[in-house]
């Protein structure tokens, strides 16, 4: 049987890497996109036009669009990655977050049942380490109790349980990957890692003075997104429908991430002060380049995520250490140093061109 994948969230960080991964494996890949006033498909632009890559308009909030699309595509695997994925934003838009991240999962499951594909279509659900929230043990594994600690996590908890319910009630092959934070040069710019690597690059190149962050003590188990999409696929190739923790097993603070990112950008930081008054100072210039702002504090914050990937290692043969923390930070900073330099050159060229056009030097 031909492998046909349907990816929700195809324009996102993970969706773009997963598309590349599945296309390389010979899959026919279909992705869901949604209408927006600005067509923002930068992460998958290089894949558009490939014979095995197809995009369709639908929305996680629109059951009929999902039912029709699943019927048309007849997927053998669905990767449900679409979500309002920003934890802090979920405090401002909790209802929308629940609509997409919780009920959206149900809509996908029902779309599969409505099209009578229960026995031929496997479903991967993008569950999250945020389910552990106000953590009850460290490190966290598949048996650690959940304690969601944001509207995002509560919505994702519904997604986790409805997947489990459909597995047991209808004997469907549907599973959760409980993924810990994974980052990359394609990470959204308001997540803490990318915010730091972009700021470090801009500060190093004189385009910004200082970056404002929230909780610097927060601990995360950060992996590389490119490594993690392989695991999503492995979970669906496993002989049993089961849930897996995907993590590196290594933990760092936001402060440690920032120190290393600035180091790769050529700036050595010295930390001074505490809490809201803490600052990261450029040792060479004495200038404050990192400061703390209450704006980035959350009403409830998850502060101690540390995953135990033993089961994925043992049963899926996945290597959690493919890309080290140091390598991840280096890749992201190197990318953003080049991006900031390229944006600068493009800006200069635009200014020059405008001047030449005005003076009639070029027409
Ligand atoms: P992301 O970059 O924020 O991408 C989210 C994707 O969902 C985008 O393609 C977005 O489309 C789409 N989307 C949002 N609302 C939608 C809607 N109403 N209908 C259709 N599509 C919609 O997220 P990511 O980092 O790739 O994460 C992928 C999934 O894994 C998410 O479910 C996230 O919650 C989960 N997760 C992520 C991590 C992590 O560390 N990255 C860890 C654990 C779990 P637009 O481009 O149109 O906005
Ligand atoms: O980068 P973050 O926004 O990621 P967070 O909240 O861990 O969520 C991400 O990972 C989850 C997996 O655990 C996914 F499910 C979710 O979809 C998303 O991809 O924040 C990480 C930590 C938090 O404790 C936050 O309080 O960094 C802290 N932080 C400190 N300063 C900041 C900032 N976070 C952001 N976004 N911006 C700051 O300035």
Structure characterization notes:
It is a single chain. With 363 residues, the protein is an alpha/beta fold. The chain has helices spanning 13-24, 63-73, 87-92, 94-114, 151-170, 192-204, 225-237, 254-264, 310-316, 325-359, and strands at 4-8, 28-33, 53-57, 77-80, 122-128, 174-179, 182-183, 211-213, 219-220, 223-224, 244-246, 252-253, 269-272, 279-282, 288-292. It has a 7-stranded parallel beta sheet, with helices on both faces. A 4-stranded mixed beta sheet has the order 8-15-14-13. The protein has a two-stranded parallel ribbon with strand order 7-10. A hairpin with a 5-residue loop joins strand 14 and strand 15 (288-292). The longest helix has 35 residues, at 325-359. The N and C termini lie far apart (57 Å). The mean pLDDT is 97. NADP nicotinamide-adenine-dinucleotide phosphate binds at residues 8-15, 32, 34, 36, 59-61, 81-85, 100, 126, 128, 179, 181-182, 188.
Order the strands across the largest sheet as they lie in space.
3-2-1-4-5-6-11
Strand content range: 15-25%
Largest sheet: 7 strands, parallel
Low-confidence segments, ≥5 residues, pLDDT <50? none
Q: What gap, in angstroms, lies between the N and C termini?
A: 57 Å
List how many beta strands DSSP finds: 15
Shape: globular
Query: N-to-C SSE series?
Result: EHEEHEHHEHEEHEEEHEEHEEEHH
Helix amount = 40-55%
Oligomer: single chain
Mean pLDDT level: 97
Structural class: alpha/beta
- Please, how many helices? 10
Distinct small molecules: NADP nicotinamide-adenine-dinucleotide phosphate, ligand G4F
